Amino acid sequence: NAGVTQTPKFQVLKTGQSMTLQCAQDMNHEYMSWYRQDPGMGLRLIHYSVGAGITDQGEVPNGYNVSRSTTEDFPLRLLSAAPSQTSVYFCASSGMGRGSTEAFFGQGTRLTVV
Amino acid sequence: AQKITQTQPGMFVQEKEAVTLDCTYDTSDQSYGLFWYKQPSSGEMIFLIYQGSYDEQNATEGRYSLNFQKARKSANLVISASQLGDSAMYFCAMREYMEYGNKLVFGAGTILRVKS
């Protein structure tokens, strides 16, 4: 019963480096999303997807790319890391229907850019 | 524009007492969902309770209840009989249903500390 699997849990990057945060879910959820959590700011939506091949920007998309080639996977790419991207990142998935479609979250990735 | 507003950065409550965490939201949609999540110090996000915009009764889940006042656009979380394990960050969130899907947005959160 894996749910949402997010890797890595911790990462340190140097400014300018690139990396991909992986997110996979096994619940056949159409909706997947990435958030960043910063002190006093709550969870801010970076990008989201409502199905394979369909992505859209959230509140803070700059500096991040996403793609959704399969229902299961929704990776988040940092092309050129900046110290301002130091944060805790969460991936989440849920069904699309109206009703109590709670979002299931990964364990989070603590990213530090030095 | 801020969609979800949680005006209490931090709250204290005495063990066994009830506490209300405030949440107001902004939407022009008629159909939406409201959620509360708990984040303990370990960092995971735990779903607590859901309220649909068309639900006539306030949602309840054990010691959690959602005081939904649609006209005031508020969705306050009430925790009854607080326990030490309730100490955590609490997030209010809203799901807006759009033509091609939906998205879930969160407030800034409220840190709750339960005192013994």
Strand content of chain B: over 45%
H/E element order of chain B: EEEEEEEEEEEE
Write down the overall mean pLDDT of chain B.
Answer: 93
Helix share, percent of chain B: under 10%
Shape of chain B: globular
- Provide the residue-averaged pLDDT of chain A: 93
Contiguous runs where pLDDT drops below 50 for at least 5 residues of chain B: none
CA gyration radius of chain B, whole angstroms: 14 Å
Helix content of chain A: under 10%
User: How many strands in all of chain B?
Assistant: 12
Number of helices of chain A: 0
Give the arrangement of secondary structure elements.
The complex is a heterodimer of chains A (114) and B (116).
Chain A: E1 4-7, E2 10-13, E3 19-25, E4 31-38, E5 42-51, E6 54-57, E7 64-66, E8 76-78, E9 87-94, E10 104-105, E11 109-113
Parallel strand pairs in A: 2-11
Antiparallel strand pairs in A: 1-3, 3-8, 4-5, 4-9, 5-6, 7-8, 9-10, 9-11
Chain B: E1 4-5, E2 10-14, E3 19-21, E4 24-25, E5 32-39, E6 46-52, E7 60-61, E8 64-69, E9 74-79, E10 88-98, E11 101-106, E12 110-115
Describe the structure.
The complex is a heterodimer of chains A (114) and B (116). Chain A is mainly beta and 114 residues long. Chain A has strands at 4-7, 10-13, 19-25, 31-38, 42-51, 54-57, 64-66, 76-78, 87-94, 104-105, 109-113. In chain A, strands 2, 4, 5, 6, 9, 10 and 11 form a seven-stranded mixed beta sheet that branches. In chain A, strands 1-3-8-7 form a four-stranded antiparallel beta sheet, with no helix packed on it. In chain A, a hairpin with a 3-residue loop joins β4 and β5 (42-51). Chain A is globular, with a radius of gyration of 13 Å. The mean pLDDT of chain A is 93. By secondary structure, chain B is mainly β. Chain B has no helices and twelve strands. Chain B has strands spanning 4-5, 10-14, 19-21, 24-25, 32-39, 46-52, 60-61, 64-69, 74-79, 88-98, 101-106, 110-115. In chain B, strands 2, 5, 6, 10, 11 and 12 form a six-stranded mixed beta sheet that branches. In chain B, strands 3-9-8-7 form a four-stranded antiparallel beta sheet, with no helix packed on it. Chain B is globular and about 50 Å long. The chains are: A mainly beta (114), B mainly beta (116). The interface between A and B is medium-sized, with 32 and 26 residues.
